[in-house]
């Protein structure tokens, strides 16, 4: 019998391809191969070997293995196979997600050879005019180890200077310097506080078994410190570890803290790396170097072979769920990876997801509580400020403005949270009522005053802002409501003596801008920070003692069943920026619904009590996590096409255990000219929903659809409207 291999391609196909393995070629699952495909060659990943192909088919031989070892080690292959099945995503596309871009394209799994340079040690005297060459020699001497050409150029020298020195035999090419993989601790960790020690004792044991523990630690309680101690205590010099974080760029301080203790052992992984950096990091991990990777969502797919610990920081954060294509949850895959690996997993948060909290109650996860802030810091006091019929300036009420004044006068910093970027969310004519809407979406255009533009926050559409009403030419055409720019402007004119620093997607677009903002804030001088969710994420601002939430009402009456959970998480996270050091913090929450039960429980402050309440409501409605949910979405140039497609899919979802809602138009029914509809599927058991969805996918593949039609499945959706 001839040897065969089943191969996945990086294409949106729900099928695999069988090939013959040529004699003398040894092929293992997970290996990259080159195969003839159509009239070209393609890069494939071997999923299985010795498969039985359909009878009477003459298989083509594959061309060659791209390297003799599996690019996807067994465990990574298992993880992705499981995930493709769980999230109903084509296996090939899912597997290729675990390769760095260069390897997806079929390039060699090796770093391009770099030339390194060192001083030759020859005596010399350079002519006076060669001062740049002299500077280069001095620089090489001061660096103390060989430098790559790339680094020489990056330091401001030129190739011709390098060549000049090489010609005089003052520098010579050499091997790259040894990289130290396990630096000893570069600086000692501070001892854990008593409360931290108690929580530490509840973290999962490292005993070659899977354990998952939810670390509920209030903001400022020192969760990061616990992670550092946990890794230091439990990792051997050989082990690999993974620390998932929501967004690295927003919290450079965290990486710096890990580097301080683990030095070169730390590798980062995030979307801003270039292809070369990705390949280099990926290879180190695949080679089994004892790295500690700090990375965003996709780091969970890296080819670890000695992974001993997984930590997911801010595990509730919605950025762990990929929003398009392969819609996996990095957090959930981390837990599954811990299972595969039989190693501990820590999920940390001050505002755990209801899913994870429920898992501590049904016995699947352990729970470690850390409810005290570090040092003398106490929990901030939360006060609701009813703003019905109160005059507002830039969205901020008089009592809040006075509080900001007092805060600045006492030498502290204030943070003002606005949940929308831009100047104002709407522009309206006060004469005829005309509203500026996006021509391509069912949504209003946001006014951005800095460049006098109207922008859609749901698609790419933008236009210059008209000065008069386009409908009736009235000049009473004005922005309504609050955005970060408007609040920034108002506060700048009311507090001319202190800097007002805006932090949102627009103000942080340039590379490095968030770093320089954080540096300014951490200099400690009085200032006012104005910003969106970005400000709620894990920052440690010791001088902020006042937080003002401009409007808390956004999520109170949403149709999305996750909205109350997300609202409370955001409010508590942003509140958690106040009073992290010696001086106590205050949080003023402006609302038109100060009697709303959710906001009242926020005021009482105990997150787990609120979570318990929300879980009770979810259970009563049999919503996740009590029943798994998936959404099948369709979008087309016409709504009728989207609805008709989903109607047919609905007909296949007939099992008793299923509950199906829809098809219904999505909340924003038209987005970027496409009409969107959805079908919500709930089921009593996981297995049931997986099988039903698999059948639905097969059906969907067979349906005839228009050219511009798209459909997708979202398992465990984060957004359900
Ligand atoms: P969290 O991640 O829970 O919000 P952090 O780990 O950022 O909290 O800790 C908050 C602050 O307290 C940081 O500045 C940190 O350096 C400091 N800190 C935490 N634990 C200790 C400790 N045991 N000793 C001294 N300082 C600590
Ligand atoms: Zn008008
Ligand atoms: Zn739009």
Description:
The chain has 721 residues and is α/β, with parallel strands linked by helices. It is 30% helix and 23% strand. The protein is built from 20 helices and 32 strands. A hairpin with a 2-residue loop joins strand 17 (392-393) and strand 18 (396-397). One zinc ion binds at residues 438, 440-441, 443, 456, 458-459, 461. Adenosine-5'-diphosphate binds next to helix 8.
Layout: helices, strands, pairs:
Layout: E1 4-9, E2 17-20, E3 32-37, E4 40-49, E5 64-65, H1 74-87, H2 91-96, H3 101-104, E6 116-119, H4 131-143, E7 147-148, H5 149-154, H6 159-167, E8 171-174, H7 194-201, E9 211-217, H8 223-234, E10 240-244, H9 252-262, E11 266-269, H10 275-286, E12 292-295, E13 307-313, H11 330-341, E14 344-349, H12 354-361, E15 366-370, E16 381-386, E17 392-393, E18 396-397, H13 398-409, E19 413-417, E20 426-429, E21 446-448, E22 453-455, E23 462-464, E24 477-480, H14 484-494, E25 500-503, H15 513-522, E26 528-531, E27 544-549, H16 563-575, E28 586-591, H17 597-604, H18 607-621, E29 629-636, H19 639-652, E30 658-671, E31 674-683, H20 686-702, E32 710-715
Parallel strand pairs: 9-14, 9-15, 10-12, 10-13, 11-12, 13-14, 16-28, 19-26, 19-27, 25-26, 27-28
Antiparallel strand pairs: 1-2, 1-4, 3-4, 3-5, 6-7, 6-8, 17-18, 20-24, 21-22, 22-23, 29-31, 29-32, 30-31
The structure holds adenosine-5'-diphosphate and zinc ion (ZN) (2 copies).
């Amino acid at each position: 019998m001839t040897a065969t291999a089943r191969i996945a391609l990086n294409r949106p196909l729900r099928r695999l391809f069988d090939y013959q393995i040529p004699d003398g070629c040894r092929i293992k699952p997970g290996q990259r191969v080159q195969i003839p495909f159509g009239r070209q060659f393609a890069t494939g990943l071997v999923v299985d070997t010795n498969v039985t192909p359909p009878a009477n088919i003459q298989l083509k031989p594959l061309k060659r293995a791209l390297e003799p070892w599996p690019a996807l080690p067994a465990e990574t292959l298992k993880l992705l196979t499981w995930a493709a099945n769980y999230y109903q995503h084509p296996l090939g596309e899912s597997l290729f997600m675990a390769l760095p871009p260069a390897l997806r394209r079929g390039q060699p799994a090796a770093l391009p050879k770099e030339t390194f340079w060192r001083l030759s040690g020859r005596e010399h005297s350079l002519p006076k005019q060669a001062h740049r060459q002299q500077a280069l020699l001095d620089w090489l001497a001061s660096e103390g180890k060989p430098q790559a050409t790339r680094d020489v150029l990056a330091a401001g020298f030129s190739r011709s200077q390098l060549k000049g020195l090489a010609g005089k035999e003052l520098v010579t090419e050499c091997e790259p310097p040894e990289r130290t993989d396990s630096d000893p601790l570069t600086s000692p960790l501070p001892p854990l506080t008593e409360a931290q020690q108690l929580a530490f004792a509840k973290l999962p044991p490292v005993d070659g078994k899977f354990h998952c523990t939810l670390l509920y630690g209030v903001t400022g309680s020192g969760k990061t410190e616990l992670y550092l101690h946990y890794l230091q205590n439990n990792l051997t010099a050989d082990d690999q570890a993974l620390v998932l974080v929501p967004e690295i760029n927003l919290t450079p301080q965290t990486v710096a803290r890990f580097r301080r203790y683990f030095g070169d052992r730390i590798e980062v992984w995030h979307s801003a790396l270039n292809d070369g950096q990705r390949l280099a990091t990926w290879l180190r991990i695949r080679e089994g170097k004892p790295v500690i990777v700090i990375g965003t969502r996709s780091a969970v797919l890296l080819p670890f072979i000695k992974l001993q610990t997984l930590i997911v920081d801010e595990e509730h954060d919605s950025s762990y769920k990929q929003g398009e294509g392969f819609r996996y949850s990095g957090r959930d895959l981390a837990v599954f990876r811990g299972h595969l690996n039989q190693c501990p997993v820590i999920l940390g948060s001050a505002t755990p997801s209801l899913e994870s909290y429920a898992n501590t109650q049904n016995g699947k996860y352990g729970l470690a509580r850390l409810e005290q802030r570090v040092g003398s810091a106490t929990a901030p006091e939360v006060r609701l400020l009813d703003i019905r019929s109160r005059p507002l300036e830039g969205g901020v009420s008089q009592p809040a403005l006075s509080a900001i004044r007092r805060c600045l006068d006492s030498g502290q910093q204030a943070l003002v949270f606005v949940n929308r970027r831009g100047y104002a969310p709407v522009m309206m004519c006060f004469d005829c009522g005309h509203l500026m809407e996006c021509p391509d979406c069912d949504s209003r255009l946001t006014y951005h005053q800095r460049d006098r533009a109207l922008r859609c926050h749901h698609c790419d559409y933008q236009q210059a802002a008209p000065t008069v009403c386009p409908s009736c030419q009235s000049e009473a055409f004005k922005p309504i409501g609050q955005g970060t720019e408007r609040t920034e402007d108002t506060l700048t004119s009311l507090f001319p003596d202190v800097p007002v620093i805006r932090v949102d997607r627009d103000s942080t677009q340039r590379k490095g801008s968030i770093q320089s903002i954080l540096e300014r804030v951490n200099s400690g001088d009085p200032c006012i920070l104005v910003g969106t969710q970005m400000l709620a994420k894990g920052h440690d601002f010791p001088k902020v003692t006042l937080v003002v939430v401009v409007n808390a009402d956004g999520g109170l009456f949403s149709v999305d069943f996750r909205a109350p959970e997300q609202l409370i998480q955001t409010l508590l996270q942003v509140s958690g920026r106040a009073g992290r050091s010696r001086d106590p913090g205050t949080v003023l929450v402006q609302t038109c619904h100060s009697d709303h039960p959710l906001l009242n429980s926020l005021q009482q402050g105990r997150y787990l009590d609120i979570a318990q309440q929300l879980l009770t409501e979810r259970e009563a409605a049999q919503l996740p996590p009590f029943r798994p949910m998936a959404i099948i979405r369709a979008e087309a140039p016409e709504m009728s096409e989207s609805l008709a497609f989903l109607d047919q899919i609905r007909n296949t979802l007939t099992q008793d255990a299923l509950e199906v809602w829809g098809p219904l138009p999505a909340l924003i029914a038209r987005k970027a000219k496409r009409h969107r509809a959805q079908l919500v599927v709930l089921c009593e058991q996981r297995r049931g929903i997986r099988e039903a969805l698999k059948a639905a996918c097969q059906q969907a593949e067979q349906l005839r659809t228009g050219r511009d039609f798209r459909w997708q499945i979202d398992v465990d959706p984060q957004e359900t409207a």
